[in-house]
């Protein structure tokens, strides 16, 4: 016992002798002593003493987080299966609580983060629509969990938009808000259409109420951003917002006219939900083209504020149409799979419709 104690004593003695205070640390403690003696504020009170171990710990912490992210995202098997899971599947929490938050964390800038968060809102609603269209019923726990997750991600999208506003990136903030509004409106239509086709489908009233509330809150955000742009002293703000909207509108119209977004027939043995057809698409494009000409005229005549409001509505109408088409393409039911219980298979394809669809994975 004495030998062990001596060993410890010698070790502690060596440690004590090797510990020396830096000049900054000595100044700090000198100030604290003076403050105690003279009851005067220490001249070093406001200064922070940086630990010599902090930087290494900081790097180590972020290295661990990044390494974990890479392992989770780029490993095969579990993560890939979770990516295709639906709200009634046990792997769903892996996707919504682990892989997707890591993807958001690793996204490099505010614009990309906001767009990704909006994509996740669309993904949630497409997944729920798929379960409903399949005629499957969520357990009360799964349904509550889904509603909470969806509400949380709408709030995350709002926070992403707010971040763009804080950075005075109003054109991107307005564009992202319009995208979110389009997605919410389109998925509301999808759920209503499912119940028209299948009245026995799961009751979606609770989810629809959350969607409606999300539309209202998003509308408030959109109005605030639009008003901020319109009352801006710097006319370049409104000009940049108009140009950004016109570019997105032009790209969307081009995609629709070229058939890049048009509905494709399902595979043999598959049924799909008929939400929009070619006649509806053509009719909507015609209406939008007329509105776009009117908005361009107002902009050319100097009525920038009213033109911006019209561009916003056109952008939302196009976004809603694109979201409807994307969702219709994904909402397919294989009759052969309906005999398999929802807990025994990975249901449907809930791959992200926008940025995450091409996220690399490794088998």
Please outline what is shown here.
The protein is an all-alpha fold. 70% of the residues lie in helices and 2% in strands.
N-to-C series of helices and strands: HHHHHHHHHHEHHE
**Total helical elements:** 12
Uncertain stretches of 5 or more adjacent residues:
51-59, 263-270, 334-363
Spatial gap, N to C terminus: 57 Å
**Computed CA radius of gyration, to the nearest angstrom:** 28 Å
Global shape: flat
Instruction: Name the helicity range.
Output: 55-70%
Descriptive account of the structure:
With about 375 residues, the chain is an all-alpha fold. The chain contains twelve helices and two strands; from the N terminus they run H-H-H-H-H-H-H-H-H-H-E-H-H-E. Strands 1-2 form a two-stranded antiparallel sheet. The termini are far apart. Residues about 50-60, about 265-270 and about 335-363 have low confidence and may be disordered.
What features would you highlight for this structure?
mainly alpha; 2 strands; two-stranded antiparallel sheet; disordered C terminus
Summarize the SSE layout with pairings.
Elements: H1 2-18, H2 23-38, H3 54-74, H4 78-83, H5 92-106, H6 110-133, H7 140-166, H8 170-197, H9 205-230, H10 235-257, E1 270-272, H11 278-300, H12 304-330, E2 332-334
Antiparallel strand pairs: 1-2
Helix pairs in contact: 3-5, 6-7, 6-8, 7-8, 7-9, 8-9, 8-10, 8-12, 10-12, 11-12
